[in-house]
Amino acid sequence: MINSESVVASDNSGAVGSLLVKDHDVVVPGQVLANGLEFLPSYGSYRDGDSIIASVLGLLELRGKVLRIIPLAGKYFPKAGDKIIARVIDILMTGWRVEFGSAYSGVLNLKEATSRFVERDEDLTKILGIGDFIVAGITNVTSQNLVDITTRGQGLGPLRGGRIITVGTSKVPRIIGKEGSMVKLLRDSTGCNITVGQNGWIWIDGSPDAEIKMVGAIVEIENNAHVSGLTDHIQKFLEGLR
Amino acid sequence: MKNQILKYVDKGFRYDGRGLLDFRSVSVEYGVAPTAEGSARVVIGDTIVLAGVKLSIEAPYPDTPNKGNLMVNAELLPLSSPDFEPGPPGDFANEVARVVDRSIREGKTVDFEKLCITEGEKVWSVAIDVVSVNDAGNILDACALAALAALKDTKFPEVDVKGIVKYDAKTSKSLPLMAEPVLVTISFVNGKVLLDTAFDEEKDVDSRLSIACLADGSICAMQKGGVAPITSEQVLSSVNIAVEKSELLRSKL
Amino acid sequence: MTKSGEKYTKRVDGRGFKDVRPMSAKVGIVKRADGSAMFKIGDTVAYAAVYGPRELHPKFMQDPSTGVLRCSYAMMPFSGHGSRVRPGTSRRAKEISMIMANALMPVLDLKMYANSVVDVFVSLPQTDAGTRCAGICAASMALADAGFEMKDMVAAVSVGVADKTVLADINAHEDCDIGASDIPVAMLPQSGKISLLQLDGVVSKEKLSEALDLAKELCTKISEVQRNALKEKYSSGVSQ
Hints:
- The structure holds 3 protein chains of 3 kinds.
- By secondary structure, chain A is of the alpha+beta class.
- Chain A is 21% helix and 34% strand.
- Chain A is built from 6 helices and 18 strands.
- Chain A is flat.
- Chain B has one domain: Ribosomal Protein S5, domain 2 (2-Layer Sandwich).
- In chain B, strands 1, 2, 3, 4, 5 and 6 form a 6-stranded mixed sheet that branches.
- Chain B is built from 5 helices and 12 strands.
- Chain C has one domain: GHMP Kinase, N-terminal domain (Ribosomal Protein S5, domain 2, 2-Layer Sandwich).
- In chain C, strand 2 and strand 3 form a beta hairpin.
- Chain C is globular, with a radius of gyration of 18 Å.
- Classes of the chains: A alpha+beta, B alpha+beta, C alpha+beta.
- Chains in contact: A-B, A-C, B-C.
């Protein structure tokens, strides 16, 4: 059950530490992961005396003596450089306020939405109205979590038609897959278009049949995000739907 | 993206693949809160509501000296949805309580005369509380079904010689029930009719009509909700749909 | 001596003096919440749901230096042992809400969530004493389920003293009828530190020390139940 290479390790002082978990285990806050000074805490774990203790619910990633935890849950926290899907919730003097499933809203400045000249008294709803969805890039997040976004750039801009579904933000890497492999699989096998935002909002667009198939596959990924060999499983799942 | 749901509805189905008049799976479980005199949990899809009945001995209302009392309250807990705020009941919670109250009262569900202990002085008072645990849509039908199920589950507590209720001892005596009104809510989206709306569909509903149906095919309470007006033809065809679908819900009791 | 003046030699439900009632726990019971859990101990059941971090209204309550933890405790109207519990806030519910937040806060760090709120709603469908402790156990699991960084799970239990005997996890009969002193305790099991402590009733210094030792032992047991429930959520699914 436990990887024999990593169960016992000794440091230079000759003291022997022990690892109490194995790679890819589900760990929970307060769980002692290892005893011994040779182990190093990384994201999601901390040292308390001799012990390394988990501080977040997630999957353990063991890299040599470094213990890191990949979270299995959590709300989206905005980060500059992220591509997100957002919804317009208000029209401002010179732009739009958007929400994207986080504690913080964002602002899309007029200049970041269009390159053309906009008249002083022009009706901004002609460009984006309340309730419209956009694909946007986060350009800046301040220390107080004020968020600036842009829709100028490749693959960014308003979304027309289609349907938005939401997943936990920790599931996003699994839905995208290694170098986009899962997204490609989903798109090819359902015939439905898909854009995944880092915030866990996903835009899909196809015939109702294709969209329902797509939603089914995404839910299946969500429920099995902690499992390895997911691409094979989803491939079989999609074949079963045909 | 309201036009989105229309793309589905026009083809005759829903976001989750169901047909327009299909319910999600429905289940009823009794006796889920032993501190209540009667209780039930109703699960419709991902929607979960609980109902509990508490009985007490109180004075009757002056205009009904020989009848027991009924009180229905709905708590849409902030625990059950990101949209429910903490604080006193909002308009929707109040509407849910009122609609459930009317369907039970007007459906002559309980034989209130049998709840009279001493005319003009002491009667049994029936308090039904319905509580949402997860709001995944169609709270109205779920709450009404849970309230009825909790009434069916209710057993009188013991009463001592001084007339004080002994809540820790239940008798085997059930409430005198005479009818089983079942609420079915019809939702209108662009002229199309949907049953058992999920929460992601409810924001696109133009208006709804809740109908309490009795086993003999008659109806005993209605409530139109939402802003958009409806035609009398829509009302009448809704009654047919509701009466037919109420059999499905009644079969789960 | 107990309320009635008799010696308390045998527990009404047949438990040993140091035994907790049967426990069970489940995570993810409220799908629409960001995190949720149920914790059951004896006939006391607590549901907890976490929403957030989310925008805090009204705005004047926002704290620009940190996120705020807000707890709300409520008994369902039919959950009480006697007559119906009136819904709405009472002084009791308000106090419990506050001490629950105080009990949970030491394991959390909300500094990165400036101006926002983390809402924890606790609601009990049935009760048999120990409700604030069950609520804290459920809330702690719900926070972990929501993905918050936590130094430890917070576990809580009510210990009592009746007729000079220290009792684990007292029930409503022992609390109300026997008149046992009631000591709700919440702990961070890793460090053994106490994050909630209240006392109702007369207790000697020696018995208090004994009660706290027992609480520590029980909280370690409870935290195992909490942790297993969290892992349980991820134990199903396709095989690896």
